[in-house]
Amino acid sequence: MSxxxxxxxxxxxxxxxxxxxxxxxxxxxxxxxxxxxxxxPCISVCPxxxxxxxxxxxxxxxxxxxxxxxxxxxxxxxxxxxxWTYPRGSYGVRYRQx
Length: 98
Ligand code: SF4
Prior knowledge:
4 helices; binds iron/sulfur cluster
């Protein structure tokens, strides 16, 4: 009898690989605008958990590890995301079952 490998979502996402564009981030935020956002939905909806609030209250973001799902772009209603594009050619996520 064969065993079934049960993987969690983090396990599956961990199989992805990324070619991070260190020169040109495909997503950029304006922390000053984010500071005016009461709800900050990007924090809870990003499946890669790339948005955070630092102890000083500033919203932080790192494009490395982005899954390119576009969810943050949809939920951002204050205009804090000032740029959202797909990564330049050859950069970004490479899915491997995740
Ligand atoms: S596109 Fe998706 S994975 Fe990337 S930062 Fe936005 S919500 Fe997170």
